[in-house]
Amino acid sequence: PGIVGITNLSIQNDNANEIAREVKKYDKNILVVKGGFHELFGWEYTLELHHEYVDYVVVGEGEKTIVELTRAYEQGRLEGKRQDIIGLAYYDYDNKKSHFNGMPIPLRGNDLDAMIPTRLFYDESYNFDVLKNKKTAQIMTVRGCIYNCNFCTESSFKSVRKRTIDSVFSELTELARDGYKAIYFDDSTFTINHKRVIEICGLFKEHFPVMIWGCNTRDDRLDDELISIMEESGCRYIFTGLESAVPEILEGLNKTHNTEEYLKKAEQIYNRLRDSEIESSVFLIFGAAKKIKNDDGRIQYIPETFEDVKETLKFSVDKLKPKYISMNILRLLPGVPFSEGKKYNLLWPVDNKIHAGYYDKKWYEQNGITDVRTTHHIYRAFEAKENIVPAFMTPEFCYKILGYIVEKVNKINIENNYKCKIVVDEQFEEAYLECKDGQYKLAPFEEIEDD
């Protein structure tokens, strides 16, 4: 090939850089272009550290940038035109520094509608268990999010842009023609606009009645009527981010500022989901900062305690009774508020904010700094291995959390003849978390590896 493109998140950064190195070893004339969410905050580190085998970095929404780059390359004009391609970054060898042409304008309107992906490759591993392992495609109908949660990378984007319903219909038609039987909507909060959701539900009922689908959303963006409409149109799975049941943590996460109503709504929604054909999954985050208002009116942030963890898990298991429980340890990623705001430095395992260099092996080596990313396999149970997590979220603390949820789920499954499932990394489950007839058995802490 003339060009090899590599996209990655922060956790995949070392692997992506190694792929770039191997491509250049194979053929130094191949143009290597990196992109993906990590490069939004990491392009300078990438080019300073890896310019010997990374020629260009696409920063931000890259659809137009990569097309312009490819056309200039095909015409043999890339060297002279590269400084004019918005969204492109590269290493300036003459001045020995990285150069960035500026952020591209976010796609809107017809430009956004035109970005229906060409699905050239399909593998059964792309299917979702919760969608009956039918041939599954993932779709985004909206980019951005109206919320500004302190833990989320979506908080970096301040605009929300929607594809037209006609565009969504066109993609669904194409997918049905290609034999897809299930759809997963990857919008951050699919049900943010009820009128829009009802229109999409209408597409399924009228044109794709044999398809089933699932989505991500928030409990406070659902109601009984909408759930009924979604169920009738083939929705069979809803994943909601509760995050916590502790009011001060919800405030610290900037998840909601009406915690009492938020938790009341969650309980109401899960009660309704249990009476439907829609399977529910609650998502929790541990390791966040509690927002406390002192007597003098000053705001203080303090770490989450194990008693807080228990409060969240009791609420989630006993009150919500979901089909699935997924748990994360707070991941401190470049660009998110928790990684950058000084008021949150109680979370940091280092003395300064978490920048992209902390997700780059070569940066550690060049600066003689110990890698602070997690290595213990207990973090696999929380999707947090090889990530940066709050200093107080030790392997022992995480094991204690997992032990408690095992105890709670085993109890409810026996007492209520229920089949609540704990969702963990497949490799971790196979090695350390046995499940038989709804009863979980967690391996002793000493048997869980640490790399």
UniProtKB/TrEMBL annotation:
Keywords on record: Iron, Iron-sulfur, Metal-binding, Methyltransferase, S-adenosyl-L-methionine, Transferase
Pfam family for this entry, one: Radical_SAM
Membrane among keywords: no
Necessary cofactors: [4Fe-4S] cluster
MF-aspect GO terms: 4 iron, 4 sulfur cluster binding; catalytic activity; cobalamin binding; metal ion binding
Zinc as UniProt keyword: no
All copies of domain B12-binding, residue ranges: 1-80
Protein's name in the database: Uncharacterized protein
Native species: marine sediment metagenome
